Sequence to fold (413 residues):
Amino acid sequence: MKLIQPFPGWRPQSKLVEQVSAPPYDVLNRQEAAALAKGNPLSFLHVSKAEIDLPDTVSPDDPLVYETAKARFDSLRKENILCQDPSPYLYLYRLIMDGREQLGLVAAASVPAYDSGRIKKHEFTRPAKEDDRTRISEALSAHSGPVFLTYRHTDSIDKIVSDWVSKRDPINDFTASDGIRHTLWVVDNNTVIDSLVEAFESLPSLYVADGHHRSAAASRVAASRRGPTKNQPEEQDYERFLSVIFPDNQMRILDYNRVVADLNGLSTAAFLEAIGKTFTVTPSATPFQPSHPHHFGLYLSGHWYQLQLPKEKVDQTDPVARLDVSLLSQYLLEPILNIQDPRRDSRIDFVGGIRGLQGLMDRVDSGEMSAAFSMYPTELSDLMSVADAGKVMPPKSTWFEPKLRDGLVIQTF
Fold:
């Protein structure tokens, strides 16, 4: 099975693409999604986050949520809001944020390549979120939220992509309410499609940048569809998952920050004293965003602090242990706050850097959380080093921007 393949995508009518496409399901909470979709019955949030159309008493993992999502998805197709392309195509997807451009290929990626490690992951998933994405994919018989993949860029792929976008008009080109511009080209020439498929086939590997839960869910769906005999032909639609693949030299990683619900029974003074046994703790008159590795910001009881970890505490030979997200866990979250498994511990939550430091302060000032930690962004080279070593990062180590739209191109199986 080839690493990537074209597929007959389902896409909104061009005149409706702004109304239909939506931010990914996991960057909005229930209230934010409901507010964004209010007054817009075509928003894909009614599918990807169908709980917004149900009473607040209905849990997001209630079976009714997935039934509602399927009904809305079926309706969008029946009403020709979403239409399927007549043949398997590839697509080129450009995003522009703050004047910065990245251009990727939309393709159906191989589940067996993911299972065998050719498509490399770098994070464990959180079981509840993986279950959720599996259930919605099964309900829809579709992958509607793309997995964000990356690769070490090559001139051959760059040339094919740039030649196509320079000579063809896009099918969609709009700026969303958040200021991000989204442009989509359909690659409908079989010769060019074959060239891209073969160019990617020559790559040793792809890397999951964002979308670990979606790719893990696709693997589970494929295993379920194969059945116990596993003797069906490989070239089944369920053996692939929706992806957008960007070259590494166009990628941008933001910080992925942490908030904790309590101080494990410690007072503010006792907590700071415990931290000070390992870190250098310095009060900060302004919100603190680390500008280099092994520095952290702490927001606690209305005040900011700088935390610096001594160099001798960092094992530079281990690609996982040297990550700031690992160091924070090793020297603070585990020994002081007793947060041993951030994948499952409900006392910790994660805040993408796109929300800024104010987003951290709001969670603490509201009383919802007790403390927040600002982080230095993980480097893409670290991500690849971890994946190449066959290791995994702690959960929520990277936050990529800009985010891909849900509902722009959909893969069914």
